[in-house]
Amino acid sequence: MQSWRRKSLWLALSASWLLVLLRVFPLLRLAVPARPRAGAPQGWPHWLDIELLQSFSQPGELPEDDPQPPPAPRGGSCDWGACFDVSKCRGGGLKVFAYPVAGPISDTQRGILASIESSRFGSVSPEEACLLLLLSLEAPAGECSPLPQQWNGGRNHLVLGLHPNFCPQTFQLGQAMVAKASPTVDTFRPGFDVALPLLPEAHPWRGGAPGQLGQHSPHPGVPLLALAEERGGWRTAGTESSACPRDGHCEQDHGPEQTHPGATLPNATFCLIPAHQPDALHFLQALQAGCIPVLLSPRWELPFSEVIDWTKAAIVADERLPFQVLAALQKMPPTRVLALRQQTQFLWDAYFSSVEKVIHTTLEIIQDRIFGAPAHPSLLWNNPPGALLALPTFSTSPSDFPFYHLQRGSRPASRFSALIWVGAPGQPPLKLIQAVAGSQHCAQILVLWSSEKPPPSRWPKTAVPLTVLAGQRKASDRFFPHRALSTDAILSLDAQSSLTTSEVDFAFVVWQSFPERMVGFLTWSHFWDEARGGWGHTAEKANEFSMVLTSAAFYHRYYHTLFTHSLPKALRTLADEAPSCVDVLMNSLVAAVTKLPPIKVPYGKQRLEASPPLAPGGPDPQPPAQDCINQMAAEFGYMPLVSSRLRLDPVLFKDPVSVLRKKYRSLEKP
Amino acid sequence: MCASVKYNIRGPALIPRMKTKHRIYYITLFSVVLLGLIATGVFQFWPHSIESSSDWNVEKRSVRDVPVVRLPAGSPLPERGDLSCRMHTCFDVYRCGFNPKNKIKVYIYSLKKYVDDSGVPVSNTISREYNDLLTAISDSDYYTDDISRACLFVPSIDVLNQNTLRIKETAQALAQLSRWDRGTNHLLFNMLPGGPPDYNTALDVPRDRALLAGGGFSTWTYRQGYDVSIPVYSPLSAEVDLPEKGPGPRRYFLLSSQMAVHPEYREDLEALQAKHAESVLVLDKCTNLSEGVPWVRRRCREHQVYEYPQVLQEATFCVVLRGARLGQAALSDVLRAGCVPVIVADSYVLPFSEVLDWKRASVVVPEEKLSDVYGILQGIPRRQIEEMQRQARWFWEAYFQSIKAITLATLQIINDRIYPYAALSYEEWNDPPTVKWSSVSNPLFLPLIPPQSQGFTAIVLTYDRVESLFRVITEVSKVPSLSKLLVVWNNQNKNPPEDSLWPKIRVPLKVVRTAENKLSNRFFPYDEIETEAVLAIDDDIIMLTSDELQFGYEVWREFPDRLVGYPGRLHLWDHEMSKWKYESEWTNEVSMVLTGAAFYHKYFNYLYTYKMPGDIKNWVDAHMNCEDIAMNFLVANVTGKAVIKVTPRKKFKCPECTAIDGLSLDQTHMVERSECINKFASVFGTMPLKVVEHRADPVLYKDDFPEKLKSFPNIGSL
User: Fold this and answer.
1) CA 20 to 30 Å from A318, out of A335, B330, B454, B630?
2) What is the pLDDT of residue A404?
3) Residue A54, CB half-sphere, CA atoms under 13 Å: how many?
4) Which range is least confidently modeled, A128-132, B361-365, B666-670?
5) DSSP 3-state assignment of A251?
6) How far apart are the CA of A474 and the nearest CA of chain B, in angstroms?
7) pLDDT tens digit string along B616-672?
8) What tens digit of pLDDT does each residue of A327-341 get?
């Protein structure tokens, strides 16, 4: 009893103490606010009368009630909306007329004019064109060319010069756009002018040297920094060297350094480029070399800054903080270095490696402005293969192209359209149709009837729709972007081809992993013929190949658009004249875009010889075809074809396992 | 532990039995002591709190009680804004110094009330929005209360709306700020610039070099790369609840909802409505609303009344036309409704245009072309419209929806300029979260076939199987493209054999001794690796021929961003157990290659060692298993691509170890491996592995062709 009371007493006592503690402590805490810790931010006060504060704008006082008419362009300054008449470009899109150059013409100028004429923007008459292009004289001290008759205050004119200073002087320009090399930031009108790169004297006008980058990541032995020198060379500095005073020029006598004389390309991870205009020349060298440009407060606008996201390929730093910049470069994570390096190479190759690319990029930018909304999205400009090779007329949605599935997290559609080209003999390929229609992935069969004989009225019954299109009996017609081609994948076939359903199925599954490449069965390879001093190609079996025949190949339908609208006119004519050339052209085109070889898949029986298959006019003699590859190389300015040494087979291909376990059994037959 | 429990139970009994009064005495004593203890604790803090009593009152101040500052009529005025200012000319970067976190420090001046000589206030002390704005800065990582460490200064003088202030006096107030110094590194926020009659497009208050975050800049007043163009905040953002509406075609194709539209433009719009009565809706102010209805929230077409901003969700495109000012709060409402803004305001610098890609979310139409707007919009493909709708809503959510969002975006832009090497990328600014989540940016995106001359480095992980190791070294050294051999000696208890005992090979051989026997040592980015290509090979893989290895290297050159390996494996979804299962049978598919023999880019060593998500790396080291599965996950996740299995199936079990390779061991092995897959899939939050049905063989493999003319004849022997 007593113990019970004692216990309860203790319990009551401790409980009351606990209560007191619990109640008093919070009160104490309230009364004694936590002492502001030294250095801890005090913060903006929370006002007691916060509810009484008024909004910055009362709806009634919004000056919407007092609308103004549009202001006139100020002080001769122009922007796109005010100074360019888009209505002239309706319908045909951008058509460019370039005034002929009066007086002596330089090689580069001739090159520029030729590349405009041969491009899809070219126009022959100033009346038809919506952009008139005036080539400025190159010599900075040269005489100003007289203004052309159609000048019209410079409206819808583009004055183009590859030098930073040129005639006519700015005050004469009126409403004309200016495209010049490395314009100063102060005079550049964003969204109206176009900033060009400062090109060296001997810049190739077509093709151009590829980027110097041989590998993705920097070689461990390569110095961290190269510095642009005033005389035009580069000096490399080791990691330890921090000999850069404020103006960004580094001292001679610090660290392990060596001087590269002349215009050799720098060999370093980062290239430090000072602020002044002549240094813009270094910028392009760094890009080509895959050396990440570090620009110290450039006073000039970066080339094509309107569309190119330079933060992905270069670093624009403040020249007043050289040590911070250096520290930041040293600490830069490998992931970023890797990405920047690769982007320099992509940009160099896509937009800068030749005069022609620079000109086409300029026109493409202007065309994008004209298009307004349905133009290249930024993704297309800043990812391989670049905007010159991804036509906005095809689509503005990146997922429609074969190149951006990774970035968009999308996949190519899981069906294909078979496009069967029926040439001269005019035999309906019944067996082929059955084999193709048997594929579970086949969405439709299109027969492109290009024979003189009329097509038969009855076609075999197939599980998938079959459509007969009237062809034009031209080899290039084969790669026309027919509207009926609705799937991403096309299986291009010849009436003479023979395939089994297994082969088709497997090849398509492989294509889905490589939607940007061509996947084919029969191969050719190209080679350099020392004796003839030119390129040649052969259908002979070899350990490597660089082309797959389009008589049986999967590829993305976008390549039809590219073939028809982007290939130089001369090459398309060539295809019509020498039909066996289409294989070379198509493969070169795809290789020029992807920089990768096509893919070969196994071909069960060697039923069809890998001879030039398209021969409406009988077997083709070899010489024209050889010529084809050389003409192609000349038009491209380089040899785009890439060789591969591998073939993709089914996982269990010819393995010593029961055939019953294999998915593609018909491929197993010898 | 046991003892202490007992002790507690017997607690009361420990107090000696005594008389009640004694007990009371003891209890009182105990209480006093306790009270004393508490009091001591409290007084520890007390003196300070007395000292800083004025400080802790800060929280309770009223806006009306802020200190008053009298501005003499003749006090200095700042210069007008300098139009040629750029970051490298007018901004003092030295104040931002080197900062390991790459964050600028922002100081806010304390709030004052400014009056002129005659005591008339210069402006409203502070608006609700400006208070929100300063609170947002103060709550952010940018804030500092130490004026000497600050890189950017934000005056508490509210200039959001030019109409509410006296221009000259406000400028004088700015000029007397303690660190003004011609406005260097000062940031002003203004949303409604200019005033009647000509409505300048930038704040008229002379501000010298100060940066201006302004709503409604035109290209003539905007200093590219110096000023920041910001949205005009719409108070409706907070007032109205407008849930997201998915993209797709809507009832009206084009809608105009603004109330004050210049008569000329209204005429154009009315003409459009007349022409496309079904798909165009042009709204105006309501004239006959009953009392008490907030007219801001209503729009009318003849007698039909529409609720604003809800009506915006009924339209695909919404016209945002300039008024007297270029910047319109309607833009914010339109974006929020997922309606694609059609911006008709010549020379307007769109909000945050320095970083936001407005082409993805809006259509800009020149004022002159307003009458053609219908045709222009018709030319946009449907898929693009849907993407624009989604993008518009995302822009609102990320950068428009609150004063806080606007403020932080502004500071981030300035921060990115000052620390360009740590700047946010285009994708980080512009991609909506769904795209960010599903997109893959391959770190080796450049299509590039590395030169063969580079060769590869073979890395052999070994513990103590010296004999087998030496055989592997001898075999691998026969591969023509091998450029270096690295042995990772993972046995700390035993020294590697003497130099003289190692096989003599034609390439450099290096032995690296590790500090701990961990599987991840195989994937460490050793300085000794000079080539990009790495061949990871186990010390018992002696069955691969030189042709097979050389061919593997050639395949890697064509796919340098992938794992290229010999034994292939597959993951499968087990429907019964609802989880992933590991499969090593002879299947038609592969999704992994074992790293017991695989080529890969050395960058993946860096990723494995430093960027492996979650606790996978430690988990692998603790379980001494699945390092290869982890590598497969990592590479597939970062590149979005499948592995490449090379050459036909082979028996890969070492002949020496068949004795221990019993059936039960095999089964536990499979269970463990399956567990790994499930564990990794949960850490990655997705299943990154890609299943393919192909493997790589030499072009002429098994073809009817003379063997001696084949480049890689010795392939596929079991």
Assistant:
1) A335
2) 94
3) 11
4) B666-670
5) coil
6) 32
7) 999 999 999 999 999 999 999 999 999 999 988 777 654 434 434 445 567 888 899
8) 889 989 999 999 999
C-alpha A144 chain-centroid distance: 37
CB contact under 8 A, A542 and B699: yes
pLDDT value at A210 more than 90: no
Q: Does B418 touch chain A (CB under 8 A)?
A: yes
**pLDDT tens, A214-230?**
888 888 888 888 888 77
A66 catalytic? Reply is: no
Mean pLDDT along residues B502-529: 94
For residue A536, give the 3-state DSSP assignment.
Answer: strand
Radius of gyration of chain B (CA): 36
Instruction: Supply the pLDDT for residue A49.
Output: 84
| A155, A175 contact by CB (below 8 A) | yes
Annotate A294-361 with three-state secondary structure: EEECCCECCCCCCCCCHHHCCEEECCCCHHHHHHHHHHCCHHHHHHHHHHHHHHHHHHHCCHHHHHHH
Read off the pLDDT band of A25 (50, 70, 90): low
Q: Are B414 and B104 in contact (CB under 8 A)?
A: yes
Residue A378: how many CB atoms within 10 A of its CB? Answer: 17
Give the DSSP letter of residue B398.
I
Alpha-carbon dihedral angle through residues B653, B654, B659, B664, given to the nearest 10 degrees: -30
- Cα–Cα distance measured from residue A234 to residue B344, given in angstroms and rounded to the nearest whole number: 49
Task: Using CA coordinates, name the residue in chain B closest to A58.
Answer: B235
For residue B608, give the nearest of B459, B436, B449 by alpha carbon. Answer: B459
Query: Which residue type is seen at B503?
Result: P
Residue A294 predicted with pLDDT over 60: yes
Q: Which amino acid is at A209?
A: A
Which chain B residues are Cβ-neighbours of A335 within 8 angstroms?
443, 611
Average pLDDT for A142-161: 77
d(CA B214, CA B160) in angstroms, rounded, equals: 9
Instruction: Name which of A259-268, B61-70, B297-306, B312-321 the model is least confident about.
Output: A259-268
Q: Report the largest interatomic distance among the alpha carbons of chain B, rounded to a whole angstrom.
A: 115
> Which of A53, A509, A654 minimises the CB distance to B702?
A654
What span, in angstroms and rounded, lies between the C-alpha atoms of A311 and B419?
12
Measuring CA to CA, how many Å separate A547 from each of A491, A517, A586? 16, 11, 9
Residues ≥6 apart with Cβ < 8 Å to A517:
A511, A555, A590, A594, A596, A597, A598, A599
Handedness of CA B444, B446, B449, B453 (dihedral sign): negative
A50 pLDDT exceeds 80? yes
Q: HEC string of A88-111?
A: HHCCCCCCEEECCCCCCCCHHHHH
In angstroms, the first-to-last Cα distance of chain B is: 64
Tokens of B645: 């299995």
As a whole number of Å, the end-to-end CA separation of chain A is 103
Helix pair B663-684, B616-623: axis angle to 10 deg: 170
The two three-digit tokens of residue A36, written as one number: 């502001």
Cα–Cα distance, B161 to A55 (Å, whole number): 10
- B492 by Cβ neighbours in 10 Å (0-12 / 13-18 / 19+) ranks as exposed
For tokens 């025949």, what's the residue?
A549
Q: In the beta sheet, which residues pair with residue B107?
A: B153
Over 70: is that where the pLDDT of A20 sits?
no
Whether pLDDT at A266 is above 80: yes
Can you list the alpha helix ranges (DSSP code H) found in B439-497? 466-476
Is the model's pLDDT at B415 over the cut of 70?
yes
Q: Which of A447, A65, A639 is nearest to B295 (CA)?
A: A65
Choose the mutation target among A56, A312, A381 for the interface with B, i.e. most B CBs under 10 Å.
Answer: A56
